[in-house]
Design a protein that fits this description.
The chain has helices at residues 9-18, 29-37, 47-59, 61-69, 78-95, 98-107, 129-136, 146-150, 155-171, 190-200, and strands spanning 3-6, 42-45, 109-110, 116-119, 140-141, 175-178, 204-207, 213-216. By secondary structure, it is an alpha+beta fold. The chain folds into two domains: 3-95, no CATH class; 99-216, no CATH class. Strands 4-6-8-7 form a four-stranded mixed sheet, sandwiched between helices. β7 and β8 form a beta hairpin. α1 packs antiparallel against α2, α3 crosses α4 and α6 packs across α9.
């Protein structure tokens, strides 16, 4: 792995202040400060630095991410910002475990105290599962900062968030309702994966009324 970051005085000052410079290969923090003051144009993040960064991630995840996320990227220009985003995404990917998915799923749970759960397409045929959930005052899934949370995730990892949420609600014994016909879920959608997941667990599906369907055993 090889990244090159073009730096400037602002970058150097912020990086030194929050402890980023120890990652500069072949330089102590003080030496790195001096080289920046002397007008160095950049430094390289080599495989050795990445390995050391990954080591810090394993030893102290919050500190590792803090080092990168505290940098005020808007001061550095697009190229530096993109490189830092890459580093942050790589760090987050390396620390995602069951706890991370559990936390995201819990934060995405709306009306958590309801005894009903509504699943469905986000928007199909003029109907959304969120509106149906509001009608029933039911639990539903909504991630406020979806683009940020799912950035860098594979489709399977995104599905794992949905699956974790669904599992959490099922453990509470909630009645499972659908805003859309589960037997006609759009192919390759996350709703289809939710329906398949429930079917594999032995659930069957039937129409409850003119607007909703339900899962039952």
């Amino acid at each position: 792995m090889f990244l090159r970051i073009i730096t400037n005085t602002t970058f150097a000052e912020h990086a030194a202040a929050i402890g980023f410079l120890p990652f500069v290969p072949g330089a102590t923090q003080n030496a790195a400060k001096i080289s920046f003051r002397a007008g160095a144009t950049g430094f390289e993040l080599t495989g050795d630095v990445v390995r050391r960064f990954n080591g810090l991630v394993k030893a102290d995840q919050s500190k590792a991410l803090e080092i990168f996320e505290k940098l005020p990227k808007k001061d550095f220009g697009g190229n530096v910002s993109k490189q830092l985003d890459t580093a942050i995404d790589a760090a987050k990917a390396s620390v995602r475990g069951a706890d991370w998915f559990d936390d995201v799923a819990k934060q995405a749970t709306r009306n958590a105290d309801s005894t009903k759960l509504v699943l469905g397409h986000f928007a199909t045929d003029g109907t959304t599962y969120q509106k149906v959930a509001a009608h029933y005052k039911a639990t539903y899934f909504k991630v406020e900062n979806w683009s940020e949370v799912t950035k860098g995730l594979s489709p399977d990892e995104i599905w794992r968030i949905n699956k974790t949420f669904l599992t959490q609600q099922m453990k509470q014994g909630k009645q499972i309702l659908f805003s859309h016909n589960p037997l006609k879920a759009r192919p390759n959608s996350f709703f289809e994966r939710e329906v398949d997941f429930l079917r594999d667990l032995g659930y069957k599906f039937r129409q409850k009324d003119q607007w909703t369907w339900e899962a039952y055993k």
